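Q: Convert this sequence to structure tokens.
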Amino acid sequence: MILVSSCLAGLEVRYNGTHCLNEKINKLVEGSKAVTICPELLGGLSTPREPAEIVGGDGDDVLDGNAKVIEKSGKDVTEFYIKGAYATLEKAREINATIVVLKENSPSCGSSMIYNGQFVGHKVAGNGVTSALLKRNGLQVISEEQFIESI
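A:
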């Protein structure tokens, strides 16, 4: 089974209430070959929500207590991101996920790139909080771009 970011299947769960529909991923969900997940909603955040970025590192640093997830207004939402990451890990184990396809650049889901924490649109190499936790637990995590290239 494949676990995928809900926004990639067309669900309007992104911070601004939109989606990032990927037709191939949506077909997998419709065909019961993939299950959707949104770590931020599982963590207790709502849609829409204020944009957030990791400040002081990446998802691994957040998990280690050395960085925080901060909303644009300055509110610390780190605990929501950590809670959502652990709920996602639990779901991945529950469905015996063989691969996890997450939305690139997200502070939760980015699997190779995230925003730099300055809210200026600049991306840096790094994992989001959920991607970091899933990788630490031996799951294969890739972005939607990597997934499309692989099929």
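Residues 78-94 form the longest helix (17 residues).
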